[in-house]
């Protein structure tokens, strides 16, 4: 075993001190470390740099690997194995410097969080090959120039370079590069070269173990590599009983991880992870979680473009490490879009690469659930409209028939939420179910069933392109919907009914605060679906899946619909990778009181808009008052009513300027309070009210109260929101109240669906062309056919 420590100074000081024990200095006679004129203490030295210092709970008893990705954030001791394909350039001569610098930055960040990082690296052969090729070219060029006496050189042939010689030439340069990079983050690095004998000889094993522990204690990052300059060729089938031989850096990393009782081994290669078929083949799918015993179902491809091992070697090493109590993730370290954060993403528990786990979940994975939902949705769409309606009617009956069981489950959720004290009062109200809520749900579901008879497959356009060539545009389901909702179990049957009516597959991810309620409501939904054999069309995600990971399943999910707080919606919009998100991030709804407003209507509409359900997204948040109404009896009535209802008032800047003693001035005119609070602001005209709404609103729902029809029409035509009302409460912005039966949400998008989204918003279209031996060449300038483009009458819609 050879050990070379490359130590960058943490603190510039004239003092030096000697470091023990002797086995920590192997191949160097003395190892010095700068410090403040004192011996290094036993405590770990924390390095400060330009990377944020973050404290996380890291301690855990070693001996059993992590069962779930979400637990990886607790890993303290981590080995990062860098494959040859990660470290080297595409031409295999030289190092990928940008990629390597990014990896060093991530390792430094984790080291400065208090973790113990180790690197098992390749690259010495590639770096040495670059150096030797350069030397050979230079030497041959000089000789050629001397012999020919001419400055023009002929092409120089490069001999085949022996790998061990390349390794010998490249080791020092590789380590010098690591040393320079880690110095940028005030991190020290130490090189250790090992061979198989260092693990088989008991004394050498103890020395290696002691050296590594001493380096970690001093907050130094060990960089380990096989000593390729002297290592013999690997022998086939040379594994000892229960011990993996060090044939390549995969087996070295696994052996090292187990020897050092490491929490996590990250293996970076040039593929995304483990696939069920060779990567690149049509049927290849990335395996998210790999379990011992699954290797029989996997086909291994060829090894990477460089390096000793292929994927089979990586899997063997990973399973051996897993058996020794170390969690393993195999991921891509070369992809330009993810390599800059792949290591930190893995440690944060994000779905990157293939995670090896000994704990197999009882149910299907979320990927399998999405595939089941797609297959079930296609079967659902193929049913007759009457059959889909029958399923929804059955679900409505179950909501009332199983009322006691539903309310009992909901009571458990409420008790747990109250005991933990983690939900605010508005969220507790959303979580609560009641007999009246269930009855309203059942009524809404029956409305959906009645209105869904001709939703899927409805012809919305017919065109005769030419003789015997007819084109139709028909409605079809979007595909697989992912609906993420918080604290609202009543959302589950509503959304399920809309998905069933529109023939879509559905993935549901509810908040854990409503787990018991969601479980029984989903069970009843599947019971209703079973009457026509489409039980799998609606899936409830119960795994410990992070929402951000669900938003990355762009090959399995066609549309994401968030139902919850504005923060939830914003997070999902930010996390979604290639999947459209339908919804609104905020519900900043306005009511404008015009000079011609009716006294009787004003207080009723404002009270209902703000106080009927203040936590709703369609509740009033900003009240705009025409300036001429200030200091009038109508204005006094509005203020008195809000005080009686215990609504806290915030004054807008203009409103505050009119008052001697004003309420607290609003911090922002773009505030969604979601409680018994609102902002009051003054405007000079309906035009200014419209401008205010466009500047500070969220394009959700806005209202004018006036008896002047001309003013009202101006407001209705010029306010650019999803819902614009005249003399009606903002609370009417709702799918059930619109007669849609229910809604999956309210969309403020400007494409596809807008406003309360019912069945129609969950449909898209496809084109059907029926011809008879038609080809485009017949319609050319000298062809025999002409385009007609005649509009044809639509088929009669179902009267029911």
TrEMBL record:
Q: Where is the Aspartate/glutamate/uridylate kinase domain?
A: 76-332
Its pathway is: Amino-acid biosynthesis; L-proline biosynthesis; L-glutamate 5-semialdehyde from L-glutamate: step 2/2; Amino-acid biosynthesis; L-proline biosynthesis; L-glutamate 5-semialdehyde from L-glutamate: step 1/2
- Could you tell me the EC number(s) of this protein? 2.7.2.11, 1.2.1.41
Keywords from the UniProt entry: Amino-acid biosynthesis, ATP-binding, Kinase, Mitochondrion, Multifunctional enzyme, NADP, Nucleotide-binding, Oxidoreductase, Proline biosynthesis, Transferase
User: Which InterPro entries does the UniProt entry name for this protein?
Assistant: AceGlu_kinase-like_sf, Ald_DH/histidinol_DH, Ald_DH_C, Ald_DH_N, Aldehyde_DH_dom, Asp/Glu/Uridylate_kinase, G-glutamylP_reductase_CS, G5K_ProBA
Cross-referenced PROSITE patterns: GLUTAMATE_5_KINASE (PS00902), PROA (PS01223)
Localization annotation: Mitochondrion matrix
Where is the Aldehyde dehydrogenase domain positioned along the sequence?
365-630
Give the GO terms filed under biological process for this record. L-proline biosynthetic process
GO cellular component terms? mitochondrial matrix
Reaction(s) this enzyme catalyzes, per UniProt:
L-glutamate 5-semialdehyde + phosphate + NADP(+) = L-glutamyl 5-phosphate + NADPH + H(+); L-glutamate + ATP = L-glutamyl 5-phosphate + ADP
Identify the SUPFAM superfamilies for this entry: ALDH-like, Carbamate kinase-like
Task: Give GO MF terms, alphabetically.
Answer: ATP binding; glutamate 5-kinase activity; glutamate-5-semialdehyde dehydrogenase activity
Per its UniProt record, what NCBIfam families does this chain match? P5CS, PRK00197.1, proA, proB
Instruction: Sum up the protein's function in the record's words.
Output: Bifunctional enzyme that converts glutamate to glutamate 5-semialdehyde, an intermediate in the biosynthesis of proline, ornithine and arginine.
| The family this protein is said to belong to | In the C-terminal section; belongs to the gamma-glutamyl phosphate reductase family. In the N-terminal section; belongs to the glutamate 5-kinase family.
Name the chain's protein: Delta-1-pyrroline-5-carboxylate synthase
Q: Recite the lineage of the species.
A: Eukaryota, Metazoa, Chordata, Craniata, Vertebrata
The gene it comes from is: ALDH18A1
